[in-house]
Amino acid sequence: MSVIGDYFIVFWGFLLLGLMAIGGFFMFRKFLKQLPKEDGKSLMDWERYYVDQTKHMWGEKEKLFLEELVSPVPELFRDVARQKIASKIGEVALQKEMDIISEDIIIEGYIIATPKRDHKFLRKKLKQKNIDLTPYEPFFNMSKENYNDNWQDNYKR
């Protein structure tokens, strides 16, 4: 066998191992989200709970607004992002005892649900829609680490 054939086999082996490692990483992350926490429910259970509890609160206009906001997310991850963001929006709406999901609640929940690095896309999209960002600056100024687990406590301040 030639030297090029040997290199091809080695390259192909590393490529397959790399792809399997990437797939395994994402499968493991999903597995971790399914593990029950102290309250007996997993993160995914809570996400489904908040979405189910607030389904009736969403209007068509609000659904389209959320779709527009998640449009910069790559299509492969968009469903997961939409689920996570919609659940956080629902959680905020329930915390505030709202009857409907408003544009303000969507923006607030979106900011809380997304990491700081994604906020530039949200800012750009909101500026395109001529939405004033001033009321939302406190949420933008928080870092993901500050409101990941105990965002309610930080929110009340």
From TrEMBL:
Spans traversing the lipid bilayer: 6-28
Keyword Transmembrane among UniProt keywords: yes
Record keywords, A-Z: Membrane, Transmembrane, Transmembrane helix
UniProt-recorded name of the protein: DUF2621 family protein
Source organism: Ornithinibacillus salinisoli
